[in-house]
Amino acid sequence: MTLELPMTHQSIKTFLPHRYPFLLVDRVTELEPGKAILGYKNVSANEELFNGHFPDQAIFPGVLICEALAQVSAILGFATTGNRPEEGYLYLFAGLDQVKFKRQVVPGDQLVLKSTLVSQRRGMFKFSCQAEVDGTVVATAEILCAERKMSA
Known about the structure:
By secondary structure, the chain is α+β, with helices and mostly antiparallel strands. The chain has a single domain, classed as Hotdog Thioesterase (Thiol Ester Dehydrase, Chain A, Roll), CATH 3.10.129. Helix content is about 15%, strand content about 40%. It is built from two helices and six strands; from the N terminus they run αββαββββ. It has a six-stranded antiparallel sheet, with helices on one face. The longest helix has 20 residues. The radius of gyration is 15 Å and the shape is globular.
């Protein structure tokens, strides 16, 4: 399978079923199926979540950093297997381990999302993930995802 890089918003939507406001990957710049992926999310001050988290001290939620890492991991999984959401496949969170947050992410930051496929067995995928801003690690996690064919 040949993938054109960088993957734009439109091509990312062929790999992920997520849509606004929950699509958290803006671009993919590197992708090697079965190995690793590099993408990013631009954190913008006009995102609705900042109306409540926190209005006077905007901080991008750690749980959404984990979700963004899971989304790039799902793209890597789909690119590895060749399956797609339009065929009824989804990647579901199965576990989140060794999560560490090292710095806050705020509006104006570009969140660089890195994921490496550690193992794949019977529809279960383990990824080693890292998020960075300006070359500084802001979060790390091991993510487990289950690839499932959903019934219509």
